[in-house]
Design goal:
223 residues, alpha+beta, 8-stranded antiparallel β-sheet, 3-stranded antiparallel β-sheet, 11 strands, 34% strand, globular
């Protein structure tokens, strides 16, 4: 991919929220956070001392803006939106760069910008047989960034056994900018799902981790 295309993809990724559909499921009460792991490692890289956000509802399941076979709590002020593939000139330029990554396809985005946060995105592995760890490894490597410092751990996420990964990523266009990423994968109803957040140019871990912690600790089977 040449420099012009890389720049276009990076710029387009910053506006992914503008490509999402409408609607959210933020009216139902959130489920319990049974199975939430106790803090295991304070500070870098897990920051387990970061408390989950307050809940403002739930999403997930058939017919929701996040059509995946799990349900999870939404942080107060965050809204779930279905992802729609880009169209027109943008689609021709970046193709599937905004909706495909390392063997996964994005299913929905939870937008926290109105509450001062960033984004939580939920991806589904294209292969039904891929393990959570393998899905995470491919996901981390699939953004065309330099990946370093990968760490993994197994834990309970709500009602599921899960694998969590954290890593540092460096964009080849902005080599001095290194971002911390977190993602958690679970299997449900024959699908491997990846919940992912990251620090960015305008978001810090305190903007994204509380909503992420709330979501993954409250995972439950959907319909």
């Amino acid at each position: 991919m040449d420099t012009r295309t890389l720049v276009a993809v990076s710029a387009a990724a910053l506006t992914l929220g503008l490509l999402t559909g409408c609607g959210d499921d933020a009216t139902a009460p959130a489920g319990p956070t049974a199975g939430a792991p106790a803090p295991q490692a304070t500070g870098e890289p897990w920051y387990d001392e970061t408390a989950p956000a307050s809940s403002g509802g739930t999403t997930g399941g058939t017919g929701s803006p996040c059509p995946v076979p799990v349900t999870f709590p939404l942080a107060d002020g965050w809204t779930a939106k279905a992802i729609e593939p880009p169209k027109g000139e943008l689609a021709e330029l970046v193709g599937e760069a905004l909706t495909k990554r390392g063997g996964t396809t994005v299913r929905c985005e939870v937008d926290g910008r109105p509450a001062g946060g960033g984004f939580l995105r939920i991806w589904a592995a294209d292969s039904p047989t891929v393990t959570p760890r393998a899905a995470l490894e491919s996901f981390a490597a699939g953004a065309g960034e330099t990946v370093a410092g990968q760490q993994f751990r197994d834990l309970r996420a709500g009602g599921f056994d899960a694998t969590e990964m954290t890593w540092l990523a460096t964009n080849p266009l902005v080599e001095e900018e290194e971002s911390r990423n977190w993602a958690l994968a679970v299997q449900s109803a024959g699908q491997t799902l990846v919940f992912a957040v990251n620090e960015g140019l305008i978001t810090e871990r305190t903007d994204v981790l509380p909503a992420y912690r709330l979501a993954v600790r409250g995972l439950a089977k959907g319909e």
